[in-house]
Amino acid sequence: QVQLVESGGGLVQPGGSLRLSCAASRSIFSIYVMGWYRQAPGKQRELVARITSADRTNYTDSVKGRFTISRDNAKNTVYLQMNSLKPEDTAVYYCNKDPPVRLRGYEYWGQGTQVTVSS
Questions:
Q1: Residues ≥6 apart with Cβ < 8 Å to 53
Q2: CB 3.0-4.6 Å disulfide test: which of 27, 32, 82, 112 passes with 92?
Q3: 116 contacts: CB under 8 Å, gap ≥ 6
Q4: How many angstroms separate the CA atoms of 111 and 81, rounded?
């Protein structure tokens, strides 16, 4: 069974921090590259951070130095620590493997978690 459950979003002031969590089914998590994606209103979903099974990480330029992705293999969980948040970080955040899970020809996504950065 495929499962992706994101949590930890909320409303935060600029400069604040949030930590997102994603519980994934073992079939997705155990051997794949995992990523955090985000989709802002009116924009396409983008990959902002990824982590390999060997804990190698990559970040999109706009979040480098502010976001940190990590994973706990024993818990099938991936995290995104977000610091120095900016209004432009406002989006729905999703986790998935990279590339995303496909089921019957369609990309599968969880419900996501809303992050709003505003004063």
A1: 30, 31, 32, 33, 73
A2: 112
A3: 9, 10, 11, 12, 90
A4: 19
Q: What is the pLDDT of residues 82-106, one digit of tens each?
A: 999 999 999 999 999 999 999 888 9
Report the candidate in 3, 65, 79 with the shortest Cα–Cα distance to residue 36: 79
- Residues near 86 by beta carbon (within 8 Å), at least 6 away in sequence: 14, 117
- The predicted-structure confidence for 12-47, as pLDDT tens digits, reads as follows 999 999 999 999 987 777 778 999 999 999 999 999
Q: Are 94 and 45 in contact (CB under 8 A)?
A: yes
Q: State how far the Cα of 70 lies from the Cα of 77, in Å rounded to an integer.
A: 9
Residues 50/38, Cβ–Cβ less than 8 Å: no
